[in-house]
Write a structure and sequence with these properties.
Layout lengths: L1 H24 L2 E4 L6 E6 L6 E5 L2 E9 L3 E11 L3 E2 L3 H11 L6 E16 L2 E12 L2 E13 L4 E10 L9 E2 L4 E2 L3 E10 L1
Antiparallel strand pairs: 1-4, 2-3, 2-13, 3-6, 4-5, 5-7, 7-8, 8-9, 9-10, 10-13, 11-12
Length: about 190
């Protein structure tokens, strides 16, 4: 009889240990906090440098910790017409170039994590690839992200340069073509998930 009790106790301990282990590696999902996140696009023109900032973005990160930090999914969505420069004429040209009547959002989805380096103190460098969709064209791009993990939030910081023409976007012009926009842009972001 004591053998059965002993066996039952061992099973209980085993189930308890498995429960603790599973709960430690169970994936968690955080949502992007728009008011704590920023995304800016920087560019040049024949007249002056310019930038637009995103006022409306959303997204999710799905992650877990086992022996290290792991990202399972990461997605970002920027409402195209939430990109604002503070100048209505420039915004109008931006929306025309982005074909916002047809394509309401710009999206990024992480498709592969190539490497995660633990930098210490909850800071990780993530190198990966993802699908960026702009104005109806999707390209797989490489990204390097700085990820800061605390007990209550995850912050992702980075930047990416690319050419508008890579996404079949004609760089905007103004004043009958006398002001031209440079093809290369630089997207800088600091994104908070909770």
């Amino acid at each position: 009889m004591s053998e059965f009790k002993d066996l039952g106790f061992k099973r209980f301990v085993l189930v308890f240990i498995l429960f603790i282990c599973v709960s430690q590696v169970q994936a968690q999902e955080y949502n992007l906090v728009n008011k704590e996140s920023s995304l800016k696009v920087y560019g040049t023109s024949s007249l002056h440098d310019w930038n637009v900032g995103a006022e409306n973005q959303s997204g999710k990160i799905n992650f877990s910790f086992s022996e290290s930090f792991i990202i399972h999914k990461l997605s970002l969505v920027v409402v195209s017409e939430s990109l604002k420069s503070g100048k209505s004429g420039m915004d109008k040209n931006t929306y025309k170039a982005l074909k916002t009547k047809q394509y309401k959002s710009i999206t990024f989805t992480l498709t592969k994590v190539n490497n995660i380096t633990d930098k210490g103190s909850g800071i990780y460098e993530v190198k990966g690839q993802g699908d960026l969709s702009v104005a109806g064209t999707t390209k797989n791009i490489t990204v390097t992200l700085k990820v800061i993990v605390t007990s209550s939030k995850i912050t992702i910081e980075g930047e990416k340069k690319f050419k508008m023409t890579d996404f079949k976007i004609e760089p905007p012009t103004a004043l009958l073509g006398t002001i031209t926009t440079g093809d290369e842009i630089n997207v800088k972001f600091l994104t908070t998930f909770k």
